[in-house]
Structures are given as C-alpha cells and as structure tokens.
Specification:
6-stranded mixed beta sheet
Length: 144
C-alpha cells in the first residue's frame, strides 16, 4: 500500500470513529508530536488518547482531506478539515454543543513496512477556542 493510500485510510477510519482501525496502520513504536498541545510521545499512547478524546467529544465528527501530497521519502503532507458538534468536554473545554470546523495540517511518515512511523499535527489553538466559545485563554472556562 502506498503512503497516500495509508494516509487516506488513516483519516477515513478516524472519521468513521474507528480509532482502533487507524492504529492498525501505525507502527508499534511510531512517534507523535501534537504541536499546539505541546505533546510528544508514542502514537499508540498519546496519539491514540488524543484521537479517542476527539471522536468521543464530537459524536458527528467528519474529517475531510482537502489536500494531500507525498514526498519521495514517503512523507505525506495533509491538510484536513474536521467538522462536528461538540457533545462532550474536549481538551478541558466544557461542552456547549458548539459546531467546530477546524483546519489542521498533518505530516505522516510511512515506512517501508507500509505503516505510519511518525506523526506531526498542527492547528491554530485560538481558532479552536473561538469555535468552541472559550472566552479567556489564560483560564479555559465558559462564561455566559
């Protein structure tokens, strides 16, 4: 399977709330870096926890791959948009049932085995907070 195919399947499975299926495409020792959250670690631990919280907090989550290209080194650069209505707390943000549409950029390195070996994700935290009606950035809380 090509790096492009693996990448498309990865996001399709997450969009279908199949985090376990998405993890089947990830090497056991794959690393992850979620830049806006300042989280680095293993994809099957920290990455999985983030993805599970995402699909739990947004029961109608839909992920659309907007752009994707693969380098000769099998690094997939992907621009996605996530859409959904908040149905639970997410990253310390209290659920107000707000709609979220957020653009993200991901870099996935696919190894010779056809599994994802490294993941880096980027998005604008301020855009996320605004979409979910966070009023203060120094203390995440919802005020009427």
């Amino acid at each position: 399977m090509s790096a492009e195919d693996v990448t498309r399947q990865f996001f399709s499975r997450i969009s279908n709330h199949d985090v376990t299926g998405a993890m089947d495409l990830v090497a056991p020792d794959a690393s992850v870096r979620l830049v806006p959250l300042n989280i680095e670690g293993r994809m099957r631990a920290e990455g999985r926890a983030f993805l599970e919280s995402l699909v739990e907090a947004f029961p109608d989550l839909y992920i659309r791959v907007r752009r994707l290209f693969v380098t000769t080194e099998s690094v997939a650069a992907v621009e996605i948009t996530i859409d959904g209505t908040q149905g639970g707390d997410f990253l310390g943000i209290v659920n107000q049932e707000k709609h979220l549409d957020l653009d993200l950029a991901w870099l996935l390195r696919v190894g010779p085995s056809g599994l994802i070996e490294d993941v880096q994700a980027y998005w604008c935290r301020n855009q996320l907070y605004r979409r979910l009606a966070v009023k203060r950035l120094d203390q995440i809380s919802i005020t009427a």
